[in-house]
Write a structure and sequence with these properties.
alpha/beta; globular; ClpP/crotonase-like_dom_sf; about 575 residues; nine-stranded mixed β-sheet; seven-stranded mixed β-sheet
């Protein structure tokens, strides 16, 4: 029973796709991912070289330079929320790249941490609309995975011209401090480095942290010098009011003062070094992280850019799982869904993916029906698998490419509403970490059922191909103008002017919905956590799965001898 029967899946690139198709698809996706890289670079530049120079002139590092110094040499950051507020303009033609804050998973002294760093090149690290929500989302990720959280604070408080969009509301700026409290209450270590401005709400953020360091240029104040001058006619500097001399030696609101940014970052690394090391190696056992037999970068040529074209879902799994080995559960039920267990980075995870193309129809032997849709057996199958993963403590990776639920008379008679509700209940009550990837289509209630963002995955990733919406633009246009169309969706009107008006209206609806499906729109408004390149998927997922095993003791993780998976395998396909 202890044996986990991983078997090879997938085929070589040459067998999976002919060279012409592979090259065309790789070129099309490559263009999209080159644009992604360019847009990332623009965000990373903040407000540009002039503002970087201003920071350096003060003898300080920029936020991204601080992060680069903090992380372990030779490692990369896995940023989330890069495109929050992307393309939005505030006030007098001002932008807020990444909402003025860097949030990223970083490896520090061998431990995965969540790092939250105010971008001091963007309005002195101010909080813009959605900045609080972005910080809170990062804090929630850290809480769910019990990751040490490091705040690199250089924040001049709310960007006041837009305060009405970031101060009030259930997730307004003050909610950050509740998240500080919840992290503390759940035993998640919090470290804060204060590098400069730390005003009003920015002043509260570090206080609940377990360690607070301040540089000689840093200050923490409820109100800055300018406000006090106006209110009390006192001529003071912010350093006089709340610098390290006050908070380290008098108030006790900070623990240590250090001369500069570099020393502070070294001190933070030293603090992380004192924390328990990762449990990931323990859970790996004798297994190491082994690359897939078929390279992950080949995914770029195997996934069609056109969402209407199919592909082999096994080829995707074969380029994500270690050694391209996989244990498929319940293969004879719900053909439209594939679920099973594989290792990623040497650690076990559950995988659920939509099969594309045509699949069999058990209700009508010999007939075929579209994959990428949830039917009764597939829903029941992934519900049972999701519950088994939760019972066994396996993190779940949901790989969405879904058009939605089956519809029609037969679907209703089969009770798809109830089966779907069972799946939603399962995913709503799971405690094991879940990570969702929107490969291409993420449509309708299928998006919800497969652990879309409203169902609290720890992280939701999109690709450059992602189309997130209730339904496709053309379908929605038909639904909008349904009363003006016949059964074949042809316009009923005979009057030329009326026909032109209907055609124009339908075209306008379709174009608007298609524009709304842009993954950058979803990322801008925090409907997805990050846009990643298809070739980056494995590295992101390896990191996320390792994080879910880092902190032992906060959730159940069974050893493979007693997995519920073995029971499922026997009951659905073994000797009984």
């Amino acid at each position: 029973m202890a044996h986990v029967p991983l078997v090879p899946i997938g085929t070589s690139r040459e067998q999976a796709a002919d060279s012409r198709t592979f090259d065309e698809q790789r070129q099309a996706l490559g263009n999209l991912e080159a644009a992604l890289a360019s847009r990332r670079a623009a965000v990373h530049a903040g407000w540009g070289d002039t503002y970087v120079a201003r920071v350096h002139a003060k003898g300080k590092l920029t936020a991204r330079e601080r992060v680069a110094r903090l992380i372990d040499p030779g490692t990369r950051t896995f940023e989330v929320g890069t495109f929050v507020n992307d393309g939005l303009v505030f006030g007098d033609k001002l932008t807020s790249p990444a909402a003025g804050v860097v949030t990223a998973f970083c490896r520090v002294e061998g431990r995965w941490c969540m790092v939250i760093a105010n971008d001091n090149t963007v309005a002195s690290g101010s909080w813009w609309p959605l900045t609080p929500e972005k910080i809170e989302r990062a804090q929630t990720m850290a809480l769910r995975l019990r990751l040490p959280t490091i705040y690199l604070v250089d924040c001049s408080g709310l960007f006041l011209p837009e305060q009405s969009k970031s101060f009030p509301g259930a997730t307004g700026a003050g909610h950050i401090f509740k998240m500080n409290s919840l992290l503390s209450a759940n035993g998640v270590p919090q470290l804060a480095g204060v590098f400069g401005d730390c005003i009003a709400g920015g002043g509260y953020m570090p206080i609940i942290s377990d360690r607070v360091y301040m540089t000689e240029q840093a200050y923490m104040v409820i109100a800055g010098a300018a406000l006090i001058k106006g209110a009390k006619s006192q001529k003071l500097t912010s350093l006089d009011i709340g610098g390290p001399e006050v908070h380290v030696h008098l108030s006790g609101c900070a623990d240590r003062r250090v001369p500069n940014d570099e020393v502070l970052i070294d001190c933070l690394r030293r603090e992380v070094r004192k924390l328990p090391s990762s449990g990931a190696d323990f859970y790996r056992g004798d297994a190491g992280a082994i690359d897939p037999l078929f390279p992950a970068h080949e995914l770029c040529g195997l996934m069609p850019v056109d969402h209407r074209e199919g592909y082999d879902a096994y080829q995707v799994l074969a380029r994500l799982c270690d050694q391209s080995l996989f244990w498929e559960l319940m293969p004879d039920a719900g053909e439209e869904m594939i679920c099973g267990v594989g290792r990623i980075g040497g650690l076990y995870a559950g995988f659920i993916i939509n099969r594309q193309g045509l699949v069999g129809d058990p209700e009508h032997p010999g007939a075929r029906r579209p994959g990428g849709t949830l039917y009764r057996a597939g829903i029941a199958k992934i519900s049972a698998f999701s519950r088994a993963c939760d019972s066994d403590g396996l993190p779940i990776i949901w790989l969405q490419d879904i058009s939605g639920f089956d519809i029609g008379v037969e679907a209703e008679r089969q009770g798809l509403l109830a089966y779907g509700s069972n799946l939603i209940y399962t995913n709503s009550t799971n405690t094991t970490p879940m990570f969702t990837v929107l490969l291409r289509k993420a449509s309708g209630a299928g998006y919800y059922a497969m652990a879309g963002l409203p169902y609290d995955p720890v992280v939701q990733l999109s690709t450059c191909l992602t189309r997130l919406s209730v339904m496709e633009g053309r379908t929605l246009a038909i639904a909008t103008y349904n009363t003006k169309l016949d059964d074949d969706f042809e316009i009923l009107a005979k009057d030329p002017d009326e026909r032109r008006a209907i055609e124009s209206g339908m075209r306008s609806v379709e174009q608007r919905i298609e524009a709304d499906m842009d993954p950058y729109v979803a990322a801008r408004q925090m409907d997805t956590d990050e846009i990643v390149g298809v070739s980056e998927l494995r590295s992101y997922l390896c990191a996320l799965v390792e994080m879910s095993y880092q902190y032992p003791g906060y959730r159940r993780v069974k050893n493979p001898r007693i997995w519920t998976m073995h029971d499922l395998a026997v009951l659905t396909g073994g000797i009984r």
